[in-house]
Design goal:
Elements (H helix, E strand, L loop, with lengths): L3 H4 L3 H13 L3 H14 L4 H13 L3 H14 L4 H13 L3 H14 L5 H12 L3 H14 L4 H13 L3 H14 L4 H13 L3 H14 L4 H13 L3 H14 L5 H12 L3 H14 L4 H13 L7 H10 L6 H11 L6
Helix pairs in contact: 2-3, 2-4, 3-4, 4-5, 5-6, 6-7, 7-8, 8-9, 8-10, 9-10, 10-11, 10-12, 11-12, 12-13, 13-14, 14-15, 14-16, 15-16, 16-17, 17-18, 18-19, 19-20
């Protein structure tokens, strides 16, 4: 609780209180403190900027934008606030405005690395990897040991067939802090790409210890277990992922692959049908579901899936002829 007597004529006290509350995750109390700091000293841009952060965390984007814009009105050259408003603009679907603001932040302070990192993140998500790499390397020119930039560079190099280099970048990040599950997961992916399954499993197992409920880690480790013949471990992880995340399609797909490898086609079919129910227009796996039903002698169980494939596939797709044959084998007429 804010001591009114202590802070009534002390805007710095309200501001510091807001920062503490924001750092503690008490968003509503942070907003109250920043608003009081503004009331006492409306010419200070810092409470406006942090008020914008608090409103953004509270998903009140309209008020967040107003607060950021007021901070910039008072101090147009603050790179941090320009960067925050750029991030909000991206979140709101305004990339051109965002990039203009990132440019202003960089022009204001070319050695402030956050805009470069945010631009790199955007290009990685858009799979424009050469552009992303340019901005990551600019960060590393400024801060050669920047962990986030090294992690990004690892992701980029792994995605561009430079997995050995990626391993080096991820290991560089982990030397400074070994307990980063996302970086360990990325390292596992890169090690798998170069065929080092043993160390890939070690990396994913360590990531799983640090973040045991992460579905991406579960899925990737389960696939590695399957690929290295540790089938019981693989099946256990896929089942746990399904239990924890029943609305995620990938554990169903992965466990179906596991059952296919064991020639257990009926169990594979059950899980492929669940996968298709969540990703209905994945044409390759829709066809695969029909094919596994054929192998399990259960075509009657995939009438709907076969009809969907016939309806949605390109007429020139040669697989349509095969699915029509399977449909005819059930004695059901096609619509």
């Amino acid at each position: 609780m804010i001591d009114r007597d202590k802070h009534s004529e002390n805007p710095e006290g309200y501001y510091e209180c807001g920062i503490r509350e924001l750092d503690s995750g008490n968003i509503k109390k942070a907003i109250q403190a920043f608003e009081k700091a503004i009331k006492v000293n409306p010419g200070d841009p810092r409470p406006y900027s942090n008020l914008g952060i608090a409103y953004e965390l509270d998903k009140d984007y309209k008020k967040a934008r107003a607060a950021y814009e007021k901070a910039i009105e008072i101090n147009p050259a603050n790179p941090s606030t320009l960067n925050n408003l750029a991030g909000l603009s991206l979140l709101e679907g305004h990339p051109y405005e965002a990039f203009s603001l990132y440019g202003s932040a960089i022009a204001s302070d070319p050695f402030y690395v956050e805009p470069y990192l945010e631009i790199a993140r955007f290009y990685i998500e858009e799979r424009e990897l050469s552009r992303a790499e340019q901005f990551v390397r600019q960060v590393l020119n400024i801060e050669p040991e920047n962990a986030e930039a090294l992690n990004f560079l690892g992701v980029i190099t792994n995605l561009t067939d430079r997995s050995k280099e990626a391993v080096e970048h991820f290991q560089g990040v982990l030397k400074k802090n070994a307990n980063q599950p996302s970086v360990l997961s990325n390292l596992g992916t890169a090690l798998r790409s170069i065929g080092d399954m043993r160390r890939a499993i070690i990396a994913f197992e360590k990531a799983g210890e640090l973040n045991p409920d992460n579905i991406t880690i579960m899925n990737n480790l389960g696939v590695l277990y399957r690929e290295t013949g540790q089938l019981d471990k693989a099946e256990g992880l896929f089942k746990l992922a399904i239990e924890l995340y029943p609305e995620n399609p990938f554990p169903y797909y992965n466990i179906s692959e596991h059952y296919i490898a064991k020639d257990e086609y009926a169990r594979a079919l059950e899980n492929l049908k669940l996968y298709i129910s969540l990703v209905p227009l994945d044409m390759d796996n829709l066809f695969k579901t029909c094919g596994i039903a054929r192998m399990a002698n259960r075509l009657d169980d995939v009438i709907g899936e076969m009809q969907s494939f016939i309806d949605e596939a390109e007429p020139s797709d040669p697989r349509v002829v095969e699915v029509k044959k399977w449909m005819d084998m059930t004695g059901k007429s096609r619509i």
